[in-house]
Specification:
244 residues; Rossmann fold; 44% helix
Length: 244
């Protein structure tokens, strides 16, 4: 299991919570810098794919954004015209920043952010029409348990969108991306966030994540009936659209 810190007694969940609390104040800035702003395009594409999969649209859509962080994905999901979006995360500091962003955009009536564990969601079965996770499934302590919980809370026919890093397969992007993720990202991350481990963990967690067909197989194992895979930007990220 890939964890942010070494030589500590806490489990992955506690380590991830600590890490994101420490970098929350620079998280959005680092996302912008390290992705050259492309992360916004990835999220918008994921939302479009959810929109095309949710047919016909309901006037009372209820969406959950798991590992919502500072609520970027939840805010983008407002484009789906939902009745309610619930964003959950285990990092209080990330949620505090997210609540400020939601309030500034006058979206507090639509988006509700709350502290909750992705592996023990406090919601009934068949509750949500759609679920999203942006760059968060790598951080689940128990990947299959977290995915199964999301599936449990989705209605039959509900759509699950996952946006996650993957590894390009073709030269020279594969070699360039490996160098960038292993050397440049941690350096910039350390300078701006003052956290010595967060962006080293990024490289390790991306390298160890079962992306592509392997992740599709895990989603199917966790209860989803069909999964479509959409690589983006030469394969450095992948969008997975799963249906319950």
């Amino acid at each position: 299991m890939v964890t942010p810190y070494s030589n500590v007694s806490e489990g992955k969940k506690e380590q991830v919570e600590k890490m994101f609390n420490e970098i929350a104040f620079r998280y959005d800035l680092l996302n912008q810098l390290l992705s050259f702003g492309i992360h916004k395009r990835w999220r918008r594409k994921a939302i479009r794919l959810v929109s095309s999969s949710l047919f016909p649209h309901s006037s009372s859509l209820c969406i959950i954004d798991v590992a919502t962080g500072t609520a970027a994905f939840a805010i983008d999901a407002v484009a789906l015209n939902p009745k309610k979006i619930i964003g959950i995360d285990i990092s209080d500091d990330m949620l505090d920043i997210g609540r400020k962003k939601v309030a500034e955009k006058n979206l507090s009536g639509i988006i509700e952010l709350t502290r909750a564990d992705s592996e023990n969601l406090p919601f009934d079965e068949n509750h949500f029409d759609a679920a999203t996770v942006g760059f968060g499934v790598r951080n689940f302590e128990n990947l299959e348990k977290g995915l199964s919980e999301i599936c449990r809370t989705l209605k039959e026919g509900g759509i699950f969108a996952v946006l996650e890093f993957s590894i390009p397969q073709k030269f020279p992007m594969k070699q360039f991306y490996h160098f960038y993720l292993k050397n440049i990202c941690p350096l910039i991350g350390r300078i701006i966030s003052k956290n010595p481990v967060a962006y080293d963990y990024l490289f390790k967690s991306v390298s160890g994540f079962p992306y592509g067909e392997k992740f599709k197989d895990i989603l199917l194992k966790c209860g989803f009936s069909e999964v479509n895979i959409f690589p983006c930007t030469f394969g450095i990220v992948t969008i997975y659209i799963a249906k319950k």
